[in-house]
């Protein structure tokens, strides 16, 4: 039954994602950009695994690498990012299977098992981000994987369950950095329980052993990723220190304004609206879990609070402090938090559960919470997604535009035109039948051009071994065109950093050949045909480009 559930939900999420992308051109750019990272590793001029980059965690792109080879037969896997949709569909379906396993472990009746699965798998935001191609699904699966084994450990105290929980969190770290707060919460819970449960003389040894078992896979995963990044890019944690990192992007968005800048709101009303719009019962559920733990002295109610709660708190604090963007999808973990708390209201027993088995008054509370999450929570999430102040990304805007078809001007539907100009520019280069390495560009922003091209080897991109050398003296490396990015889009573009005036005047190394406008109608790219300047025009490269 679990395999059938996985296959059915994977097909459902993929079908929805494929229709949104292929028919309506609706997607979040984070999704195809991860596909591009996978493509760089196997299809760029200098294909190598580290080309997936170190700013974002590698798991989604690693999963997509095998699919890149199939793009020769189905180009949309690459050009439209459907490889990413397959990745997220499979991870979100696997997360739903994990919900089913938790429900069975807790002894829910058959009907409540399927209601719990439906409460998760058919929740509107879960469907959208299962079909989106982004990394939330991989994170979701890994966290629920860890929660399941932590619940088993709380009941059995078998160290093997701790080991599996640690492996799940270690794998999850490779999906998103938000697993770090989850790891902290889990460590704290395990340390407290490992100290309180054994006799006084065994407490310290039990604490050290239990924490070490769960920590080892996590520390190993983080260390391998950090050291690899340091060896390849000279940065241990590129997401923090890199010019392309999250902090740099948030700062640039705040200074430039626009939709991204508005998303990073520090208004607690907005933060609360996004949290409660995702799951309106999250505060009640967490408070109830704490109260039940105090009243019943059973700690399983706190497992989800310890593992998932810190992730939700980090999202809120990150938005308030402008450390991260305040995207609605960042609050997605509130959905499994409430559901896992509800399922821990059941206590596993020796008797076989009936179809609608609840048993205890506490289990009845869990049943009410599941029912309300479906009957009330689903409509609330739909309404929140329809409010542009809450559902604040391209997918929410686009889905609402489909419902309000004809009620909005085409000029306002910029989210329906994403990557259109990237495809046009890719076709511009493809039709010229350029030799390999003829077009230089920083793929941080121009990844869409590379992704849409049928001739990816014509580009010199950021991950190529000769990128820095070609950037400094493009005429010596056979580069015929340079793609410059509008400085108002990003401060991180390597071409602009090397040649600060290239957007305005070609910096003495290029003549303007083409101007490309973006989805919002403003200039996005300028293509310059390379000319060899007098030696006095070219300054030595600055340290920032080295």
Please provide a written account of the structure.
By secondary structure, the chain is mainly alpha-helical. The protein has two domains: 2-400, no CATH class; 420-545, no CATH class. 60% of the residues lie in helices and 5% in strands. It has 25 helices and five strands. The chain has helices at 2-22, 30-43, 59-68, 76-79, 82-106, 110-121, 124-130, 136-156, 159-173, 179-196, 203-233, 238-241, 246-256, 258-263, 268-278, 282-296, 303-320, 334-343, 361-386, 394-403, 420-430, 443-452, 467-472, 494-498, 502-505; strands spanning 439-440, 459-460, 481-485, 510-517, 523-530. A five-stranded mixed beta sheet has the order 2-1-3-5-4. Strand 1, helix 22 and strand 2 form a beta-alpha-beta unit. Helix 6 packs parallel to helix 19 (361-386) and helix 15 (268-278) crosses helix 19. 50% of the residues are buried. The chain crosses the membrane at residues 47-70, 82-99, 111-130, 174-196, 208-232, 275-295, 302-320, 326-346, 367-386. Keywords: Membrane, Transmembrane, Transmembrane helix.
Number of strands: 5
Describe the sheet with the most strands: 5 strands, mixed
Query: Which oligomerization state do the chains in this entry correspond to?
Result: single chain
- Which strand-content bin applies to the residues? under 5%
Gyration radius, in Å: 25 Å
Poorly predicted residue ranges: none
Strand order of the largest sheet: 2-1-3-5-4
Mean pLDDT, as a whole number?
89
Distance linking N and C termini:
55 Å
Total helices: the number is 25
Question: Order of helices and strands, N to C?
Answer: HHHHHHHHHHHHHHHHHHHHHEHEHEHHEE
Number of domains: 2
Structural class: mainly alpha
> Rough shape?
globular
How much helical structure, as a percent, in the residues? 55-70%
Keywords: Membrane, Transmembrane, Transmembrane helix
Protein name: Glycosyltransferase RgtA/B/C/D-like domain-containing protein
Transmembrane segments: 47-70, 82-99, 111-130, 174-196, 208-232, 275-295, 302-320, 326-346, 367-386
Organism: Mycolicibacterium confluentis
